[in-house]
Design a protein that fits this description.
265 residues; 6-stranded parallel sheet; 10 helices; globular; binds D-glutamic acid
């Protein structure tokens, strides 16, 4: 098999990264994916940098063992804390895409006087990962840790989600923003609620599509597009299987998928 026909490895702390996987499948339908959700260790948003690095390295090794030709860190917390560590695990020049760099690139195309806010997990927000990288554009941060759990419990586009979102977004940190980065894999599912809160008056940046485009460009530059010659069987692994995880996958991926369990420690 040609190396270009190998799968793309995608990982996240759980099932939220399936929103990124979905965008990748939309932009690159001929590619095969192997997804790994570390459900045993989620939420990464509450973990130390040290633990996020350790889990990310193990998963990267698993994806390399599966023969993946590229790795996508489909988790903001892992992108903020373990991107460098992940790159150290792969051969020189091997494509590793995180969910933050494509957003930084995009923000640089905005007007210099833009006023950007970012919401995400504690791990992502406390990393201050956007700081200095988007200067002179002003950025404000807000931890919104309840939102990921809320989405997993199915509170989307309803009274509960609207009231939690409003409690967060009305905080003074975000009072003057004109652009909001959805800095967590779960938040694209809340886009409608968030837009409604702002009466559609601000720009919302969802990394999924930007990440998929960045991956497409990387694969094109490296001549790594799948030739379409082989049968493509996407595979979805989790480190701790439960039926409730499997049931929520449809919300994130937009299609029924079956999960296989593969333990990491
Ligand atoms: N996937 C995580 C992220 O994007 C959210 C869930 C978690 O905290 O593990 O930061």
């Amino acid at each position: 098999m040609n190396f270009s026909d190998k799968p793309i490895g995608i990982f996240d702390s759980g099932v939220g990264g399936l929103t990124v996987a979905k965008s990748i499948k939309e932009v690159l339908p001929d590619e095969q994916i192997i997804y790994f959700g570390d459900t045993l260790h989620l939420p990464y948003g509450e973990k130390s940098s040290h633990s996020i690095v350790r889990y990310s390295k193990q998963i990267t090794q698993f994806l390399l063992d599966q023969g993946c030709k590229a790795i996508v860190i489909a988790c903001n917390s892992a992108s903020a804390h373990a991107y460098e560590a992940t790159k150290e695990c792969v051969p020189e020049g091997f494509p590793v895409i995180n969910v933050i760099d494509p957003v930084v690139k995009h923000i640089h195309q905005l007007e210099a006087n833009s006023n950007v806010g970012v919401i995400g997990t504690k791990a992502t927000i406390r990393s201050k990962v956007y700081q200095d990288r988007i200067s002179p554009i002003k950025i404000s941060y807000l931890e919104t840790p309840l939102l990921a759990a809320m989405v997993e419990e199915g509170f989307i586009n309803n009274e509960v989600s609207q009231s939690v979102i409003s409690a967060y977004l009305r905080k003074k940190e975000l009072s003057t923003i004109d652009t909001l980065i959805l800095g967590c894999t779960h938040y694209p599912l809340l886009e409608k609620d968030i837009k409604a809160y702002y009466n559609d008056a601000i720009r919302i940046i969802d990394s999924g599509r930007l990440v998929a485009q960045e991956l497409k460009e990387k694969l094109m530059n490296l001549k790594l597009f799948n030739s379409g010659a082989m049968e493509k069987n996407d595979a979805f692994y989790v480190s701790d299987y439960t039926t409730s995880f499997e049931q929520t996958t449809k919300t994130f991926f937009g299609a029924e998928i079956s999960l296989k369990e593969l333990k990491i420690t």
